[in-house]
Design a protein that fits this description.
Number of helices: 22
Radius of gyration: 38 Å
Largest sheet: 5 strands, antiparallel
Structural class: alpha+beta
Low-confidence stretches: none
Helix content: 55-70%
Number of domains: 3
Shape: extended
Distance between the termini: 32 Å
Number of strands: 13
Mean pLDDT: 87
Length: 655
């Protein structure tokens, strides 16, 4: 239950065996290849690899274009589930590796590229014709060509004005601009459409006038003949372009039969391009190539065997990593802890020389998760749904491992539901006596006790965090320094906690009280005197110690943060209880038949929604407690996840 030991690897082999060796490394997926900004390679090799990358990039670009075209224009209808979690395509390994030979990609691309241009031209022409027809429609009563807007002595303006200002505007126009004439052509949608004839001597007066009103000048599209005839012609054109667009779409839809091959091709090309980029970052000579990277120490035999199967002309060396190598991190835990690694990974990987926090956070995270939901039926439902999802082919193996976390959470929720008497959030008084007899406490009737339990739970985890910090310092520096910095805190926390409990009214015997006082005093003195053990002067040591003592108040805030678990647990129960009371009690309905119908149809859906919302909360808030209150005591992080060269297929499953 630690960070796996990593070895640094150097592989030297003949350049003629390069492609099959890289393919073998991809297959075993145990080597992270170290990339370098600058590599030594002959110009001929660089040119070959760059041409290969450009060729693959172009192919991938064409596949992505075709997939975008399918999704944009002719995508098949999807179910609601498919839109959130697309089904994965299943393909045989042999078919995956020869996918580009299975259909004429370049020919399809050229045909679809031309059709895409036609589609956008038709769409553009349709929109333009339709918009122009709509712009001209309010002016169809004009009996002259509106494009001829100027004579030798006058200028014609087309404009709209809010209809409630029409009369006022016309009156002011006649009064202030005697050489102007206006005509209302149409009224629609709260606007008046005006034609205004303005003598050029009155242009300045007219321009000043329209600034005082919501007067919007209109530029009309080109008119051939009359406005009415132009509108008819534009509508015919729009219909023609729409039909043309439909024909193009029907031709584009033929690509749907290649959709599966395109999705598989994208995965294949992405992997080939990744390998080519890896190849580009290797050192080459005219005869050999060099692979440098990291491997889990226990996998060195697998690596040697994988290379030996491809060639007998190679040199493979292993050595222990050094701090300057910045090795990647592999979390090494028993299988049952793998789902909990997701909680650690979401925060960040530990550094290579650090403890893996997964086994230490696991019980606390699951207890917090279980308390936050705390219902037997909710827990069983969560177990069942998560288990069913792990059987689906829509999810990757990593996602299925993550779903195991919710199976564990469901088990914890079921356990705490039993001991708190919550079965589908019904009051435990309504349960059979056998179930009532195993109830340890009632969160609703005893919220203070529930709060105390969560705070004590938090105090224990924080205390563990300090112990882990002590172990880390002892390992990295010395036992003496670890005891000086952390032992006073380990004495102070229980001493102060017991004294606070006594202050709040919990009965304490004189012996327990005296022990608590001694622990607290010893902790305070220890923090002041020893916590800054690296200080160079006594003043610095005491001053730093006093500051560290002041910082101990943060432990109180961290402990109180665990009270949110109580809030989440009560929220789950109260919302569910409200659902039961409203639809199964006598609050809204008296009829037994109505209650039965609602109990079968609506109530389960509402409880599932309550479970869904509170499952999110039961994951997010306990995770936050790990990251903020627990990890801050001992965890540095900053490690990088181990990423071996491997076949990555997000949307397909290779048999």
């Amino acid at each position: 239950m630690a960070v796996a030991k990593i070895n640094k690897v150097e592989l030297i082999a003949s350049i003629s065996d390069k492609e099959k060796i890289i393919k073998a490394l991809e297959k075993v997926s145990i080597l992270e290849i170290q990339t370098k900004e600058e590599t030594l390679s002959p110009e001929k090799v660089k040119t070959h690899i760059h041409n290969k990358i450009n060729h693959l990039t172009e192919k991938l670009s064409r596949v992505n274009f075709l997939l975008r075209l399918v999704n944009q224009i002719s995508a098949p209808k999807q179910s609601l589930i498919d839109s959130f979690v697309p089904p994965k395509l299943i393909v045989k390994k042999k078919d995956f590796e020869t996918i580009l030979e299975g259909y004429p990609l370049d020919k399809i691309y050229k045909e679809m590229e031309a059709l895409d241009v036609k589609f956008h031209q038709s769409r553009h022409n349709f929109i333009e014709a339709d918009n122009n027809a709509n712009l001209l429609n309010p002016w169809k009563k004009l009996d002259f060509n509106p494009n001829e807007t100027e004579t030798q002595k006058a200028q014609i303006f087309f404009a709209t004005i809010p209809d409630f200002r029409e009369e006022e505007f016309i009156d002011v126009l006649e009064e202030e601009c005697p050489l102007c004439y206006s005509q209302v052509i149409n009224r629609a949608n709260g606007l008046s459409y005006l034609v205004v004839y303005v003598h050029k001597e009155n242009l300045d007066v007219f321009n000043n006038l329209i600034r005082r009103y919501e007067f919007i000048l209109i530029s009309l599209p080109k008119v051939i003949g009359t406005v009415s005839k132009t509108i008819d012609d534009l509508k015919k054109k729009a219909l023609h372009y729409k039909e043309e667009e439909g024909k193009v779409i029907n031709r584009i839809k033929k690509i749907n039969r290649y959709y599966s091959k395109l999705v598989i091709s994208r995965s294949f090309l992405e992997n080939e391009l990744h390998k080519a980029n890896v190849e580009n970052n290797l050192t080459h000579t005219s005869d050999v190539f060099v692979v440098e990277g990291f491997i889990k120490a226990a996998d060195y035999k697998k690596l040697r065997s994988a290379v030996a199967e491809q060639t007998n002309k190679y040199a493979l060396t292993f050595e222990d990593v050094k701090a300057k190598d910045k090795p990647p991190v592999i979390l090494e835990n028993p299988r049952y802890l793998k789902p909990l690694e997701a909680v650690t990974a979401l925060y960040g990987m530990p550094s290579y020389d650090e403890l893996d926090p997964t086994p230490y956070l696991a019980p606390f995270f699951l207890i917090a998760f279980g308390l936050a939901i705390g219902d037997v039926i909710y827990g069983l439902a969560l177990i069942g749904l998560s288990w069913l999802l792990t059987k689906s082919k829509r999810f990757s193996p990593n996602t299925k491992v993550f779903l195991g976390l919710f199976i564990y959470g469901g088990i914890a929720a079921t356990f705490f539901g039993v001991i708190t008497g919550s079965w589908l959030t019904f009051p435990h008084e309504s349960l059979p006596r056998a179930l009532q007899s195993i109830v340890l406490f009632d969160p609703i009737a005893q919220p203070a006790l529930f709060l105390v339990i969560t705070l004590l739970f938090g105090l224990v985890q924080i205390y563990l965090g300090v112990i882990l910090k002590l172990v880390g310092i002892a390992r990295d520096k010395s036992v003496s320094k670890a005891l000086q910095s952390q032992l006073p805190i380990l004495l102070l926390i229980p001493g102060v906690a017991i004294l606070i409990a006594g202050f709040l009214g919990f009965p304490l015997s004189p012996i327990v009280y005296n022990i608590a006082v001694y622990l607290a005093l010893a902790g305070i003195l220890g923090v002041i005197i020893f916590s800054e053990y690296e200080a160079k002067s006594i003043v610095g040591r005491i001053g730093g110690g006093l500051y560290n003592l002041y910082s101990m108040t943060s432990y109180l805030g961290d402990t109180i943060s665990y009270g949110r678990i109580m809030a989440l647990g009560l929220a789950t129960f109260l919302i569910g209880s409200t659902i039961n009371t409203m639809f199964l009690g006598n609050v809204l309905f008296q009829s037994l038949l109505v209650k039965i119908v609602l109990g079968i149809s609506l109530v389960p859906i509402l409880h599932l929604l309550n479970l869904a919302v509170n499952t999110i909360s039961a994951f997010v808030h306990p995770a936050r407690l790990q990251y903020v209150e627990f990890f801050s005591k001992f965890f540095k992080g900053g490690g990088s996840r181990f990423q071996p060269i491997a076949l990555k297929t997000d949307n397909i499953i290779i048999e």
